[in-house]
Structure formats: structure tokens, C-alpha cells
Specification:
The structure holds two protein chains of two kinds. By secondary structure, chain A is an alpha+beta fold. Among the domains of chain A are: 1-160, no CATH class; 520-617, no CATH class. In chain A, 63% of the residues lie in helices and 12% in strands. In chain A, the strands form two sheets. In chain A, strands 3, 4, 5, 6, 7 and 8 form a six-stranded antiparallel β-sheet that branches. A four-stranded antiparallel β-sheet of chain A has the order 2-11-10-9. In chain A, a hairpin with a 5-residue loop joins strand 7 and strand 8 (582-585). The longest helix of chain A is centred in the N-terminal third of the chain and has 32 residues, at 201-232. In chain A, 53% of the residues are buried. By secondary structure, chain B is α+β, with helices and mostly antiparallel strands. A five-stranded mixed beta barrel of chain B has the order 2-4-5-7-6. The chains are: A alpha+beta, B alpha+beta. Chain A binds chain B through residues 161, 163, 234, 296-297, 299, 301-306, 360, 364, 367-368, 371-372, 381-386, 388-389, 392-393, 521-523, 579, 581-584, 601-602, 604, 608, 610, 612, and chain B through 21, 25, 28-29, 31-36, 54, 66, 69-71, 91-93, 95-96, 104, 106, 123-128, 130-132. Strand 1 of chain A pairs antiparallel with strand 1 of chain B.
Chain lengths: 666, 152
């Protein structure tokens, strides 16, 4: 009976979503305030029923209700409780429910935190989100209902995929989805602006914190996913350029471009159509990501059992959303060249450079990801685009971005004096060149030019940002006013600095681990030792240990540096009862300068095992960089000016000035 | 230059730049990617001998063996009908690698017909079969059925 309540709640929320898509929008068109005012209550109602649906599914997992097909396929009485909860979104149907639930939550959040917006804007944004959720809910109800019953109730469930029985994967999908769905808000604002034809600075100001929030979640989701892949997939890589990883990376890159472009639109009134385009693109790429994961059209480590019906449905949905919004864009968007004028050396043009590089990179990733599909469709053969290609493309674009980042914070709007800029950044340039030159020492560079380049760019970002902070504080009350500035008006400024420092941290980690990492696969007998990068790994044999829903072969590897014992690592090879398949559980001794990573391969007989012994220098900085970027984003959102109910007069005056410029020009 | 001329020059440069970039990308993607061949096509000599490519199919039951005291394993990739390719791999096989299950291997074909794999992939999900593998198996199956009908 209880699962039917969930099903019923799902149907009700879909009815509300349809109403939310239609009435508020019509209300704003023909001036019927009572219809327009329906948007908020409908959004609340939708969020309420989706919460019930999610709660019911969670309950079904907690009480092991195997009459529900989804629970029977993805849970087991022996599954630890925490993974019973994460199993709710562990497979297709439940993850869709989570998607819809988040969309409902974001809609309700808009309904609550939009006091300063006009009713018209709120109604339109919520109407757009209602349309999106109508799509998702009908997809769920017609092709993938999580509450489907089984008429022969199994005594035991098939258990959750062992790879997903892990804290990283309990957290990865929800954070990533919050990001994906969050971009629907920016999308909603963009569509609402296009419908209304009013693309002023207030539109940009309202989109900014929401876009940044979505971006923060997406950053966290990707970071957690990368960290999870590193320790759980057992082969110690942190990024594979797998189609599904690319699917989450593309909206992230476009989202990054969107955040920067929104800044220009808000402050200077420029780049409006470009910003709109990015908002549409970011969300479209989120949908494309969902399509790629869910349809199984691409060979990927993430691909689930394919279902052509589902693929066709999402593809149709994708075409309607992307096609519809682009058509609206073509019809309503202002001309490309609108906006305030600016010089070549100005913050605007450098942000434009950042945007172009990010967009180019997105298209490269998109091309590489979809090339196998295109080749197959044109019958040119079945290809897979390798890791080296993506790395090459990455290295062709991103170094330029890192160079631009360094100039960013000191740049002024409209016009920056190049001589002044050079004088300011002289020391930062010298410092970074020296560090780059030091990195040419063979033991650091390992013969690759990329190590000095990476170190130079990292030093450049750090040094230029420190310069910029000092310059900023000099204009205030000196260096001592740092904390007052941080607590007061400077919050979004320091958010930017921290996020950019995250980029530097990422460069450090990625460069070092790519060039100094050592990966060896060995056959080892008990008592045998192997020496890797100054560490001695001694294999002490394998014993059997029990787990709650599995048994494991647990290896013991003692690591020495010189004569000193560093750590004892115990990697496992698990066999889960319900699915009888092996699972590698790596053991890692982590540190800020290096990770020591060991995992078990196979039993080769006579007590011998194949083992992986990895030395991963600075790999943590890859994820610390991601965390710093997220933290920076959070600081930006918490900036006070977004919480002010009505914009200050001076800001209004400023944007008015920018608008006048536009009118004069056009 | 007048703004209009500026814009035209800008547009021309942009078009040229995009064209050159597209050419480079497509050329590099051809070099950086690997094609898929079914075991049957490999036996028919259609696969390149000088280039990395991928094969896929099922790991033949009972075919897997270790070579001496090394990490090298040998197994047969089959389309479940007549075509079989002996494959050799040095390293640790993925968790889901199992006889009778689907597999995709990337590597080079040696002159003696043994496929030397650099990478062996088996997936997250045991229900999941890579689309290429699925298609190769179906094709081989259908052909075998047709031949049987023809013989009757």
C-alpha cells in the first residue's frame, strides 16, 4: 500500500508541474495576476509531493520491501543501512526521482528567495522549471517508474552494485544532480528574460548567485566523482575522459564561462546575448549528460543496461528543450554587438578571452565525446577516442586560460593602462619565471617541458593574486584591513581569489601526478619486496576476513622508507554474497605530498598475488583544488549585495548608464 | 578602418581560424582514436597490422591460461560462432573479466595472428554488454543462422 502512496504523489506532482508550466506563464502574458500568482504555491506543492515520493522510496528500502521491483533489484537485507539510503539513487529509476526532487526543491527555493523579484519574473522562471519537470516526471512515470511492483515477491533482493557501496558514491550523484538541476534555474531566468524581452542588469544580478550555486554543486560533484574513481575503481586514475565524465565536465566549463560572462552583463551591461546563449548551452549540456548516461549509446564505464525506449524519450525531450530555447533565442535575442564599449586591454576583453577559450574547450570535448556516434552513424567505423587525444586538446587550450587568470583581478573595467598593469605585475612575472626555470632541473622536470610550464603557471596565478590583494588593500586601510574587508564588502572578491587559487592547486596536483607518478603491476610472493620512488613495499601475504555482506581476501603490505616503517596497508579483494563478483578495494596512505596506493589483483596460486603498487605525488591537490573552487563559489554567493532586497540607487544608476550606452550605439 | 570593415576582417579571420582548427582536430582525432573490429573481421584480414585497434566479443570458456610465473595471460576472444582470436595481455585484469563474459581489448595484431592487448576493459555492470560487442555477436549469430537455413 505504501509504495502506491509514493506513486500517487508522483502523479500529483506531475499534475502540479503541468499546471505550473501553463497557468503562471499565461497569467503573465494576458495580465491575469491571479494566474501568475499561482506559480509559488504550485512550486511548493510540487516540492511537497516529490518529497513524499522520495521519502516513500527511502522507506521501502529501509524496510526491505522487495515487492517493489526497484528495491528488489538494488537492495538486500544484509546491505548496511547507510547504503540502503544511498541505494535510493543508486540506479536509473531512483536517480531520476532524485533529479525531479531536486528540480522541485530548486523551484521551491526560488519561490522562497525571490522576494525582491517582480511577480512576472518569478512566474515565468517557475513556469519554465515546471515545463522541465513535466518532461522528467512523465519520463519517469511512462518509462521508469521506481514504484513498479513485482507480483512474485522475491525473498531476497539482488543487492546494490558493490562499486556503489561506498561513501563517495553515496555523495557523488546527489551533488552532481544538484549542480545539473541548478543550471535549470539559470536557464529559467534566461528563457524568462527572452520571453519578457527585458535583458537588463537586474536579470543578470538575479541569475548570478543561482548560477554560482549550481556551479558549486557541480564542482563538488565532479571532485567527489574523481576522488571516488581514484580509490574505488582500483586502478588509481583520477580522470579518464570517459564519455560520462565529459558529460559532467562540459556543463561545468560552460557554467564557468557563464559565471564570468554574467559578471560583465551585471556590471557593464555587455555580452547580453552571449550570456543568454551560455545559460541555454549550460543546461542543454546537463540534459545531454543525462541522455548520454541513461541511454547507453556510448561505451563507458558508467553505462547502465541500455534501453532504447528511454533513450528515444530523452532524445525527444532534448530536441524539444534545446530546439525550442534556441528558436526562442534566435527570435528574441538582442544583437550580438550590444553593450558598453571597451578597450582591448580591459577586464571585459580578458573575460571575453576566458569565455572564448572555455567555449572552444567545451566544443573540443563535445566533439571528442560524440565523434564515436557520428562515425558510427556515417558508417566510417566504430571508433573510440582515446585519452591522449583529450589530453592533447586540454593542453592546447588551458595554459592560455591560466595566463589570463593571472591578469584578471588587477584588470579594470573599460580600460586598463598596459604600462600600469605591467608595473604592477612585474614582480609576479619574475617570480613565476624563476620558479618555471627552477622546474627545468632534470629531477623535477623528468625531461618534459610540461612540468616547468605547469609550475610557472601555478606560480603566476598565486603571485598575481597576492599582488592583487595587496593592491586592493592599499586602496583601503592597508594590509591590516584584510579581515574587515573579508567580513564586509570584499567577500565575493576573496571568493574569486580562492577559486582561482583552486585552479593553481589543481595545476600543481595534475602536473606532478602526471609526470612523477609511478604505477607498477607486479607478481609478488609473501615476504617479497619491491622498491618504488624511495619506498620499499613488502608483501606479507593474504588472509580471509569476513564483512557484513561480503567476504574478502585481505592483503598486508608493509611500506618502509629506508629502515623506517611508514605504514601497513591492507587492500581487499571482496566477493559480495548476492552478486558473487569480485570487487577491488584499494588501500591508500594519503599525504599532502604523496599518496601510496596499493591494490590486489588476482590469486596466482602458491600464495602469490598480482598487486598494484602506486606512488602518486601531490594527487590530493587535484581535489583540494576542486574544494577551493567550491569554497570560493560559496563565498561569492554569501556576498551581501545578493541578499539586499532592493538594489542600491547607485548601482541602478550605473546600469542605467550602461543601458544608455547601448541605446546610443544601436 | 571603419567599424564595418573591422567587423568583416574579424569575420574572415574567424572563419579561417575555425576552418584550420576543424581540419587539425579531425586529423588528430583520426590519429588518436582506435577502430573496432569483430573477431570475424580480424580473421578475414580486415584489421590493420600497423595500428592500434579494438576487438571485442566473449571470453571463450576454458581458454584462459597464465604463461609461466609472469603477469601475462592468454585467452580467446570469440564471437560465439566460428571466429576466435587468441589474445595476450600482461597486467592485472579488471574485476569483471570472466570466462563467458563480454570483453573489449585494445592493442595490436602481431604477424602470427596473436592480438597483443595493451588494455582490457570489462564493465561496471554484468548485464551490460558494450554496444559494439553486442552488435558483433548478433551479426555472427544471424549469419550462422542464415547459413544453417541455406544448408537445409
Amino acid at each position: 500500500m505504501i509504495p502506491e502512496i509514493g506513486h500517487y504523489a508522483l502523479v500529483l506532482s506531475m499534475c502540479l508541474a503541468i499546471a505550473q508550466a501553463i497557468f503562471p506563464l499565461i497569467g503573465t502574458m494576458n495580465n491575469t495576476p491571479s494566474w501568475a500568482a499561482l506559480a509559488r504555491p504550485l512550486a511548493w506543492g510540487q516540492a511537497f509531493f516529490l518529497t513524499i515520493a522520495l521519502a516513500v522510496l527511502t522507506y521501502a528500502f529501509l524496510v526491505d520491501d522487495f515487492s517493489v521491483r526497484y528495491v528488489a533489484s538494488n537492495s538486500n537485507t544484509l546491505l548496511p543501512t547507510v547504503y540502503k539510503i544511498s541505494a535510493v539513487w543508486g540506479a536509473h529509476e531512483g536517480s531520476l526521482l532524485l533529479w525531479a526532487f531536486f528540480l522541485g526543491t530548486w523551484s521551491a527555493a526560488i519561490a522562497i528567495f525571490s522576494k525582491g523579484l517582480t511577480q512576472e519574473v518569478v512566474s515565468r522562471v517557475l513556469a519554465v522549471m515546471g515545463m522541465i519537470n513535466t518532461g522528467f516526471l512523465s519520463f519517469m512515470l511512462f518509462t521508469s517508474n521506481p514504484f513498479d511492483r513485482l507480483f512474485q515477491i522475491p525473498a531476497e533482493g539482488r543487492d546494490l552494485n558493490p562499486l556503489l557501496q561506498d561513501i563517495g558514491l553515496a555523495l557523488h550523484p546527489p551533488t552532481l544532480y544538484l549542480g545539473y538541476v541548478g543550471f535549470s534555474v539559470a536557464f529559467g531566468f534566461a528563457i524568462a528574460a527572452l520571453i519578457g524581452g527585458r535583458l537588463d542588469a537586474s536579470w543578470a544580478r538575479w541569475s548570478r548567485p543561482w548560477t554560482t550555486a549550481a556551479w558549486v554543486w557541480l564542482t563538488l560533484g565532479i571532485t567527489i566523482g574523481s576522488w571516488w574513481a581514484y580509490y574505488e575503481l582500483g586502478w588509481g586514475g583520477w580522470w579518464f575522459w570517459d564519455p560520462v565524465e565529459n558529460a559532467s565536465l562540459m556543463p561545468w566549463i560552460v557554467g564557468t564561462a557563464l559565471m564570468h560572462s554574467l559578471a560583465v552583463t551585471e556590471k557593464r551591461g555587455a555580452f547580453r546575448s552571449w550570456t543568454l546563449m551560455l545559460a541555454i548551452l549550460a543546461f542543454s549540456l546537463c540534459l545531454l549528460g543525462t541522455f548520454l548516461v541513461r541511454s547507453g549509446v556510448l561505451t563507458s564505464v558508467h553505462a547502465f543496461a541500455a534501453d532504447p525506449d528511454r533513450g528515444a524519450f530523452i532524445l525527444a525531450f532534448l530536441i524539444i528543450v534545446i530546439g525550442g530555447s534556441l528558436a526562442l533565442y534566435a527570435w528574441r535575442a538582442p544583437s550580438i554587438f550590444s553593450g558598453g564599449r571597451f578597450d582591448l586591454i580591459s577586464r571585459e576583453s580578458f573575460l571575453l578571452g576566458n569565455n572564448l577559450l572555455l567555449t572552444v574547450f567545451t566544443f573540443l570535448v563535445l566533439f571528442g565525446t560524440l565523434a564515436p556516434l557520428v562515425y558510427d552513424a556515417l558508417e566510417w567505423g566504430k571508433i573510440s577516442v582515446g585519452f591522449p587525444w583529450f589530453n592533447k586538446m586540454f593542453l592546447m587550450v588551458t595554459p592560455f586560460l591560466a595566463v589570463l587568470i593571472g591578469f584578471g583581478p588587477l584588470m579594470r573595467w573599460k580600460r586598463t593602462d598596459p604600462v600600469w598593469l605591467f608595473k604592477k605585475l612585474r614582480i609576479a612575472m619574475i617570480v613565476s619565471v624563476i620558479i618555471g626555470l627552477i622546474a627545468f632541473i632534470p629531477s623535477i622536470s623528468t625531461g618534459s617541458l610540461l612540468v616547468p610550464l605547469g609550475m610557472l603557471l601555478m606560480a603566476w596565478i598565486i603571485a598575481s593574486h597576492i599582488t592583487a590583494i595587496f593592491d586592493r588593500l592599499k586602496h583601503k586601510k592597508g594590509v591590516g584591513s584584510f579581515f574587515a574587508d573579508l567580513a564586509g564588502k570584499g567577500r565575493s572578491y576573496y571568493g574569486m581569489v580562492i577559486a582561482h587559487m583552486g585552479v593553481a592547486m589543481f595545476i600543481l596536483g595534475a602536473t606532478m601526478v602526471s609526470h612523477h607518478g609511478v604505477e607498477t603491476d607486479l607478481r609478488m610472493s609473501p615476504g617479497e619486496s619491491a622498491e618504488i620512488s624511495g619506498y620499499r613495499f613488502r608483501f606479507d601475504g593474504v588472509t580471509r576476513v569476513p564483512g557484513p555482506n561480503y567476504t574478502a581476501n585481505q592483503g598486508k603490505i608493509t611500506i618502509f622508507q629506508g629502515d623506517e616503517q611508514v605504514v601497513v596497508l591492507e587492500p581487499q579483494k571482496r566477493t559480495y554474497f548476492a552478486q558473487e563478483r569480485p570487487m577491488t578495494e584499494a588501500a591508500i596512505d594519503w599525504g599532502f605530498t604523496r599518496d601510496l596506493y596499493v591494490s590486489l589483483g588476482e590469486d596466482l596460486g602458491d600464495g602469490d598475488w598480482s598487486v598494484r603498487l602506486y606512488y602518486k605525488p601531490f594527487v590530493r591537490w587535484v581535489w583540494l583544488g576542486g574544494l577551493a573552487m567550491s569554497l570560493g563559489g560559496i563565498l561569492c554567493i554569501s556576498d551581501r549585495r545578493y541578499r539586499r532586497k532592493k538594489p542600491k540607487k547607485e548601482q541602478l544608476a550605473q546600469t542605467d548608464a550602461a543601458n544608455t550606452l547601448v541605446t546610443e550605439k544601436s | 578602418m571603419k567599424p564595418r570593415q573591422k567587423r568583416i576582417v574579424f569575420a574572415i579571420i574567424a572563419v579561417i581560424a575555425i576552418g584550420v582548427a576543424a581540419k587539425l582536430i579531425i586529423a588528430s582525432i583520426d590519429a588518436g582514436s582506435s577502430y573496432f573490429y569483430s573477431p570475424k573481421k580480424v580473421l578475414a584480414g580486415e584489421a590493420p597490422t600497423d595500428q592500434v585497434f579494438r576487438i571485442g566479443g566473449l571470453v571463450k570458456v576454458g581458454s584462459m591460461q597464465r604463461i609461466g610465473k609472469t603477469l601475462t595471460v592468454e585467452f580467446i576472444v570469440t564471437d560465439d560462432q566460428a571466429a576466435e582470436v587468441t589474445t595476450r595481455y600482461t597486467g592485472i585484469l579488471p574485476d569483471l573479466f570472466k570466462e563467458g563474459q563480454g570483453v573489449v581489448a585494445k592493442g595490436r595484431l602481431r604477424d602470427d595472428g596473436i592480438f597483443i592487448a595493451e588494455e582490457v576493459l570489462a564493465k561496471h555492470d554484468e548485464k551490460y554488454l558494450a554496444p559494439e560487442v553486442k552488435e558483433a555477436l548478433e551479426e555472427a549469430h544471424n549469419e550462422a543462422m542464415n547459413q544453417k537455413e541455406y544448408a537445409q
